[in-house]
């Protein structure tokens, strides 16, 4: 092509075509990046699904193991004597089982060096606390060296062996409360009604009666409230005394009732807080204090800490 002067003009480039090529290239790169992102997301999703499946498998395996252990435990309960814990909170009762197989079993304080078959923590549990023997005659328990063992509210004397009966209540130390169970294949009558099984409140009331607090005359609402407080306070006082003994403190807590107000209580004319107190004896300072129930409970919490 000639220009106005008759010279050859340079060729005119097709800029629109080059522009199209450039745009198409950008679109291709964007598509490649998008496909790569999708691929990475798919891989991440597959990995997430794999992890989720693994967790699901682990959960299922754990549930299967729990079911297996529960079935094995229930089978042992049908064939083997055992101790079953009872707690003030009914939800926590029956969570601890100690199976008593034929032979001799020692109960003692839990420690790295302990060889006791049944190891318990807490207050007033001796290194060797008691011995439980299971033979063809039955199951018996015997305290060792003045260890605190109560059966149905009655404290056992040293070296006194007692044969246990079905649903007997056993207190070891100050706080470990159990009921003794005979397996169902030995019982003449099936024991499948848990509503008739002694609970924590029944055991505490039994201990209170054995301590001299009779509840037979709890005919009025006021007297029922009194005995309710007594059954609540007695285990708390036992625990406080055990803590004081453990810390080598020369203190002793005792339940005190103003008997001159008993008639008023029977007539519901006063509240039980007015005449249920806790007496504190400090043998080191030769002093005594009188605490109300609420103040004693607060002090008990501080002692536990």
Outline the structure in words.
Residues 13-23 have low confidence and may be disordered. The chain is an alpha+beta fold. It contains five helices and 14 strands. The strands form three sheets. The chain has a six-stranded antiparallel β-sheet with strand order 2-1-11-10-7-8, covered by helices on one side. 17% of the residues are buried. The radius of gyration is 38 Å and the shape is extended.
Q: Average pLDDT, to the nearest integer?
A: 81
Estimated radius of gyration: 38 Å
**Percent of residues in beta strands?**
15-25%
Q: SSE order, as H and E?
A: HEEEEEEEEEEEHHEHEEH
Widest sheet: strand ordering: 2-1-11-10-7-8
Number of strands: 14
Helix-and-strand structural type: alpha+beta
The rounded distance between the terminal residues' Cα atoms is: 105 Å
Outline: extended
> What's the story with the biggest beta sheet?
6 strands, antiparallel
SSE topology sketch:
Layout: H1 15-79, E1 81-85, E2 97-100, E3 103-109, E4 118-120, E5 130-134, E6 139-143, E7 149-151, E8 154-155, E9 162-163, E10 169-172, E11 176-181, H2 200-210, H3 221-246, E12 251-257, H4 262-266, E13 276-282, E14 287-292, H5 293-304
Parallel strand pairs: 3-4
Antiparallel strand pairs: 1-2, 1-11, 3-5, 5-6, 6-9, 7-8, 7-10, 10-11, 12-13, 13-14
Helix pairs in contact: 2-3, 3-5
Descriptive tags:
39% helix, alpha+beta, six-stranded antiparallel beta sheet, 305 residues, five-stranded mixed beta sheet
